[in-house]
Amino acid sequence: MAKDFSQMEDSNRSSNPSIHDVSDPARRMVLRGGAAAALSPMLAPLAAAMAAGLSGGLAGCGTMPGSGPRIGFTPIAASAADRITVPPGYTATAFLLWGEPVGVPGNMPAFRDDAGNSAADQAVQMGMHHDGIHYYPLDGSRRGLLVMNHEYTDDGLLHAGGMVPWTAEKVRKSQAAHGVSVSEVELKDGRWQAVRPSRYARRFTASSPFAIGGPAAGHALMRTAADPAGRLALGTFNNCASGMTPWGTYLSGEENFIGYFSSADQPTAHERRWGMRKNGWGYRWHEHDDRFDAVKNPNEANRHGWVVEIDPYDPASTPVKRTALGRAAHEGAWVAVTKDGRAVVYSGEDARFEYIYKFVSRDRIRPGGGKANAELLDHGTLYVARFDAGGRGRWIPMRAGEGPLTAAAGFADQGEVVIKSRQASDLLGATKMDRPEWLAIDTATRWVYCTLTNNTARGQPGQPGVDAANPRANNTMGQIIRWKEDGDFDGEGFEWNHLVLAGDPANERPEAKGNIKGDLYGCPDGIAFDNRGVLWIQTDVFASQMNRGEFQRIGNNQMLACDPGTAETRRFLTGPVNCEITGACWTPDGRTLFINVQHPGETPSERSNPEEPRRFSNWPEFKPDGRPRSATVVIRKDDGGPIGT
Ligand code: FEO
Ligand code: CA
Ligand code: CA
């Protein structure tokens, strides 16, 4: 996610008391040891339920029974170089670059190095700023679909001449560079490559139709002049992380959606709580597209901030916004399965002092893929998390008419609860977290992990102070929290502790030292388990902070492998200059890892000077007249073995 936008997204002014006012690092360390001892290998009890509904493999979704975590590679040093580095014995190759044709039959315009592609071209090319990604097998580990998010745009790099002049065509191109792509890929002659054309190739952009499912569908707050029924929204944008469901669909989180809207008047209290600004956040879509002008279309913003579900196996399917999961600046969404086969969807809201949610489906997952589970995520119970001191926590149900969620308080029905889930969570006394990013579920041990990437506002004057779960003021480095539900994944109580507080022990400020065991990093963002139970951690340090100050020794953004039992961490990959490393998925055999490199060469202002597109990086092509391009990176072990061994 973009630095400036995160700095601006700080809209929780609610006074729900921080009931956790004690930081107790010594106790946390004891808990870490205790939890580590408890992490014994056990059979994954979900395998049967998941297999029942799964169309393809489950790579990346959990641990394999009986195979303890093992990290076998030689860790690499931190790096400030403009390239990808991986351990000896591994090879990393970039493909699916921003602007390549996605492979729509009969419509495959080539990328222009001068950024001269039209909006129409961009709508059938790979989007900008690759993020969450998953692999959907078509032929096991040899051929499949890569579905990925394209989070946002650098409009200085996207358009010839940058943002001057700012035109309707440039707005359309920016909108077309956002969203999600579906690409067919295959391993041929030892090399992964795109299959073009492909009947599966698709782009979802800021203009694509999305059905609205769940309690907000048809709600008065979702109706607009263009969609008086409130059941069909246009577009998905700022899609950050992603989850693969056990029934074979893709979940994508609409993260900083509010940054695209602007109000010429002072925003309403509801709009302010969601971070809307009088003059927007800088995308300037509202200047040429009234849909993003909140005065002209006051309900349009309510139609964004959802988790969207896409069925990549059905090229004719209409994707759906799943409103039962709550509206939030969703980083992403990740699915666990209860012993009786219901879906439990975890999601967090990447904004300062916002919340962590879970949704428990009413119905069981059915065999038959996306079609058979078309309404699974529309019915169930939404909860928000409260982390109490003492290592215990509660999931607080969010039901209209219960507790403080009354009609008088603005929650006349469940539609209002989910549309205003931030306000509902404020009233319910949920814990204000340090920017929840990715979640990862260890299906063998049943611990759920969440990265809390940083929160420099924590403990500042007028801001919430530290609490047990968010124990550091001016938290530049971030932490990884984890919890285990009482009983099954639908439990309403849980125990929790921290896997790690990130940082560098050489730092002077105690809050920036951390307690990493092994190679150093800051600002954990992406996390995912491979099928051997190794937890992979990816980082998103702001370009303006990289390799300086408290981050001096930490290097460019990177990817590390962590044994969750011992917390031992080894650096596996370092990225090019000013990129973010994000997204991780494996082929079912665990022998190919796909990750994304987002915004190589990003300027500290996050908007490139169109006169100097190569100022900080020219990765991955290094063409003298080219420009840095987000890309997917394929990582293989030279001996063909599983990644990480
Ligand atoms: Fe898009 Fe929260 O990073
Ligand atoms: Ca981030
Ligand atoms: Ca992220």
Structural classification: mainly beta
- Given the C-alpha coordinates, what overall shape results? globular
- Biggest sheet overview: 9 strands, antiparallel
The largest sheet has its strands arranged as 13-14-16-17-18-23-22-21-20
Mean pLDDT: 91
Helix content: 10-25%
Small molecules bound: MU-OXO-diiron, calcium ion
The poorly predicted ranges are: 2-7, 17-67
Number of strands: 31
First-to-last CA distance: 31 Å
How many helices in DSSP terms? Answer: 10
Summarize the structure.
With 645 residues, the protein is mostly beta strands.
Structure notes:
The chain has ten helices and 31 strands. With 645 residues, the chain is mostly beta strands. Strand 25 (524-529) and strand 26 form a beta hairpin. Helix content is 11%, strand content 28%. The longest helix has 14 residues, at 25-38. The structure holds MU-OXO-diiron (FEO) and calcium ion (CA) (2 copies). One calcium ion binds next to strand 9.
List keywords for this structure.
9-stranded antiparallel β-sheet; mainly beta; binds MU-OXO-diiron; single chain; 6-stranded mixed β-sheet; 11% helix; disordered N terminus; 645 residues; binds calcium ion
Please render the helix and strand layout as text.
Blueprint: H1 3-8, H2 25-38, H3 47-53, E1 90-95, H4 119-122, E2 130-139, E3 143-150, H5 155-158, H6 168-177, E4 179-188, E5 191-194, E6 202-204, E7 209-213, E8 232-234, E9 239-244, E10 250-254, H7 269-273, E11 307-310, E12 320-322, E13 334-337, E14 342-348, E15 352-354, E16 356-364, H8 369-372, E17 380-388, E18 392-397, H9 414-419, H10 421-428, E19 433-434, E20 436-441, E21 447-452, E22 479-485, E23 493-501, E24 517-518, E25 524-529, E26 535-539, E27 558-562, E28 568-574, E29 580-586, E30 592-598, E31 631-637
Parallel strand pairs: 7-12, 24-28
Antiparallel strand pairs: 1-31, 2-3, 3-4, 4-5, 4-6, 7-8, 9-10, 10-11, 11-12, 13-14, 14-16, 15-19, 16-17, 17-18, 18-23, 20-21, 21-22, 22-23, 25-26, 26-27, 27-28, 29-30, 30-31
Bound molecules: MU-OXO-diiron and calcium ion (2 copies).
